[in-house]
Write a structure and sequence with these properties.
Number of helices: 16
Largest sheet: 2 strands, antiparallel
Order of helices and strands: HHHHEEHHHHHHHHHHHH
Structural class: mainly alpha
Number of strands: 2
Strand content: under 5%
Radius of gyration: 20 Å
Shape: globular
Distance between the termini: 25 Å
């Protein structure tokens, strides 16, 4: 297997070779724009890694990896519209640089483009890949709807939140791995095992995002600390804090999450103090470690080279300790 930076380099070279310049320009220019805004490209890298993990050739998985990345960016274009966001990766969102209608339509064509990439595989393999992809695509939409619903509710349970991030974030990570495994000729059970690894890793990834949003370093995290707090997002930190605070402080936390406009430095400081007083930083770190270990346990029984397993273990460990 290659190193993660090598997989990233191989994928980026393939991305650069893929032409997004088509007519009408008003439809495709935004697609090219969002696809070249950068990002860690972790999901397509996982697809390539999974192909090599089972003894295949990562080059056979490049089209599926690109489908994963185009789909992911399609969701970002539409999510930014729904969230009323103005910036993405330090640049103007598509709907800000152009307009909302363009963002909707360009996002739609990105979804179609991701599906067309599966035409490069044999009919039998297409069926298996599309079955996995279709299930994931529907669940991502379901996760987004849960997220929207939770914004309107006073209370969200921990189980509901974990389901939401599983659908909105983790299923794409799991499916990226599963498709790479299928392309390499892995059995259905082996591909599902790698999917489970990705699912647990995806949950840990989102919980790490929750943690960094409140307690990360703004210089390395790349955006203002406390964004979820400012937007009154009921993350793992918020839900768990309500369970642990006394009734007076719990009510204060609820009241702070009712403020509108919600964005204030004083509010963010107070909420973070409440999180700290209830032991939330260490609790969420323990939860991240727990889900990462669950991911590691998934791949332990697989009959593949130990060095290949170590690559996925190292990848998970890196995600668990990331600061960006």
């Amino acid at each position: 297997m290659l190193s993660v930076p090598e997989y990233q380099s191989k994928f980026l070279a393939y991305l650069e070779s893929y032409s997004f310049k088509k007519e009408p320009e008003g439809l495709y220019a935004p697609v090219s724009y969002i696809m070249h805004l950068g990002g860690k490209r972790l999901r397509p890298v996982l697809t390539l890694m999974a192909a090599d993990f089972f003894g295949g050739d990562y080059r056979d998985a490049l089209n599926a990896a690109l489908a994963v990345e185009i789909f992911h960016n399609f969701t970002l274009v539409h999510d930014d519209i729904m969230d009323g966001a103005s910036m993405r990766r330090g640049q103007a969102c598509v709907h800000e640089k152009w307009d909302v209608n363009t963002g909707i339509l360009s996002g739609d064509v990105m979804l179609i483009m991701s599906y067309k990439l599966f035409e490069n595989y044999t009919a039998e393999l297409q069926i298996a890949l599309l079955k996995a992809f279709n299930q994931m695509a529907a669940e991502v939409c379901e996760g987004q709807q849960y997220d929207v619903d939770f914004e309107m509710r006073a209370e969200v349970s921990l189980e509901e939140y974990l389901l939401m991030i599983t659908y909105k974030t983790a299923v794409l990570v799991g499916t990226a791995l599963k498709m790479g495994a299928l392309i390499a000729g892995a059995s259905a059970d082996e591909a599902e095992t790698l999917y489970d690894y990705g699912l647990n890793l995806g949950i840990a990834f989102q919980l790490q995002d929750d943690y960094l949003d409140a307690f990360g370093d703004e210089k390395t995290f790349g955006k203002k600390i406390g964004g979820d707090i400012a937007e009154n997002k009921k993350t793992f930190l918020y839900i768990k804090a309500l369970e642990r605070l006394d009734s007076e402080d719990a009510q204060l936390l609820r009241d702070l999450y009712e403020l509108n406009p919600a964005d204030s430095d004083e509010k963010i400081r107070t909420v973070k103090d409440l999180f700290r007083s209830s032991g939330i930083p260490e609790i969420v770190r323990d939860e991240i470690r727990s889900y990462t270990q669950k991911a590691f346990d998934c791949i332990s029984p697989l009959k593949v080279e130990d060095s290949n397993k170590q690559m996925l273990l190292d990848f998970g460990s890196t995600l668990m300790t990331r600061t960006v």
